[in-house]
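Thread: flavin-adenine dinucleotide complex, take 2
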Amino acid sequence: MEFLIDKAMHERLEQARHLGRTEVRPVGLEADHLSRPIPPNHAYFRRCLERGEGRTRWPGPNAKPRQTASDSTHTIVMQLLLAEEFSYWDRGVGVANPGVGLPEGNVIAMGTEEQKERFLGPFLNPDRPRWACFAMTEPGAGSDVAGIRTTARKDGDFWLLNGAKCFIGNASRADWILVWATVDPSLGRAGHRAFFVEQGTPGLGGFKIEKKMGLKAYESTSFTLEDCRVPAANLLGGEESYQRRAGFKSAMGTFNAGRPAIAANAVGMGRAVLDESLTFAREAGLLGDARVRDRLEHIARKLRLARLIYLRAGWLVDQQRPNVMEASMSKAAAATIAQEAASFGMEMLGAVGARGDHLIEKLYRDVKAMDIVEGTGQIQRIVMARHLVQLPSRD
Ligand SMILES: Cc1cc2nc3c(=O)[nH]c(=O)nc-3n(C[C@H](O)[C@H](O)[C@H](O)COP(=O)(O)OP(=O)(O)OC[C@H]3O[C@@H](n4cnc5c(N)ncnc54)[C@H](O)[C@@H]3O)c2cc1C
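Output below.
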């Protein structure tokens, strides 16, 4: 296992650092101050497109895959390092950025060629900021995704979707939403299927941007599906996937690739807290206090350990090797230490933190979600404990 950061990777990280300082942090602070998501027509998103961001990693019809083993900048390890760097400057802005986002892995892995062209094609060279999103969570089903109650019923050449989703990132601005529904609730996860629901489809509506304590830069939105008719061609993977009952495995595949990314986000946010804490402690003359130095060292050490675990989890993906344990461990470790760092930072600020205008206070609010998304800390520990004693994962 080798995590050498070569020249090309170093340059990409330097670019990200420059962008973070000049663009990402300021736009994230603006959204937090105004307590609302960055509007879709914000000039920041235009500039993202001009820089070539917001494009799908799907190479396009008949194209050769872009990734080669020798290209270090196209590895998962590189993506994770960039995710850490971006989140150092503002994790909410990272999610707000245009692009396919979370469902991209599902569509590349499971979509038919026709679906890739239809739904990923517009993201190859987008003419305007475009978003997509992944909708699993419901008011009654979060951790226990087997409990989703959004139903899908076949109706001739269409599917009829009925249900409600909540806390879905970028939903109201998405060109299409990958909606997870059940064809038979008695089947649990084996009954899950995913559907491309295009914005403007009759029956899709009731969009409501949820109130959030942090990560204000992007919208988390609830919506409803009422007799929402989608063409049979919009079933992810086509009719064949319906017969194979492969729906749930695809969703969990995304989560496994996603957990190290959330860990990387958490490490980036923890690092930002550490740097701000050091600056504050230095300016307030607190560095002479051995207790303060001890806490700073504890956080620095744990953040480095968390980074090593997420790098290993990502490296295993690059090697196309299973990473269930490492993916869960990376997220559980990184979210915990990042929250601890933010809590310590707030303690040190004292009354300054209570005023609500210090970056550490913002990070304290932002970081909590790292413990929740893509499986809470408790759920990661359940996954690891079952893996440790060689119990099968639940399905
Ligand atoms: C900022 C943010 C963005 C999000 N974005 C998306 C998105 O884009 N798409 C999407 O589909 N979802 C999204 N979600 C939803 C997220 O995936 C869920 O919040 C998460 O799965 C937890 O579900 P829940 O909130 O219903 O909590 P619950 O599942 O109700 O859990 C509540 C508490 O009980 C604990 N718990 C639950 N089951 C067990 C158990 N068996 N054993 C021990 N403890 C347990 C949990 O750990 C938690 O502490 C987002 C959430 C947030 C906060």
